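Biotin transporter
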Amino acid sequence: MRNSKVFSLVLVSIFAALTAIGAFIKIPLPVVPFTLQIVIVYLAGSILGSKRALQSQLVYILVGLAGLPVFTQGGGFTYVLQPTFGYLVGFAVGAFVIGYIIERGGEEPSRLRFVVANLAGTFVIYAIGAPYVYFALNFWLDMPTSASKVFMMAFASTVGVDIVLAILTGLFAKRIYFILNKKMMNVLEVTK
Ligand SMILES: O=C(O)CCCC[C@@H]1SC[C@@H]2NC(=O)N[C@@H]21
């Protein structure tokens, strides 16, 4: 029981750290950069299950808000005012949703389920992140921006690549899911 908790904590921390690494791999674009954080969110949801995936993203957000520069534009409590903060909230909810959908797939979730789960996660991330960009620019950053411009910057410029990544990661995640689940069982058996 204690071992499985330690193992969970390690996995949660690893995925929080990987999301930070994903933030450093970025292509600057106006307001919303292209980053690889979302791939880690897909993998967290697919591999860790809903609860631990959510925890990994909450740890990531808390570490960033506490001041470590783990987000694309730094860190600190005032990051909540950044236009891209909504995506970070979306990562937490999205990771949970991905894990939840996969958990509903029984012992052997199909490849299609992994892909659909990632696409649902993508939807959740953008549904929270894109409106947040609009509100941040227009309501508290004093940068009046039309809805169509926000649509281009916060959705259209990155969603195509993210959908491709969701599909590829979904196809690939099933394999890791089974390898890791087997390993997890072994670790828990050995350390019992
Ligand atoms: O400030 C942050 O650290 C969050 C950046 C979020 C970038 C979003 S995630 C979804 C979309 N896809 C990308 O590649 N970039 C945006």
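thats it. The chain is about 75% helix and 0% strand. Residues 91 and 125 are 6 Å apart (CA to CA). bye
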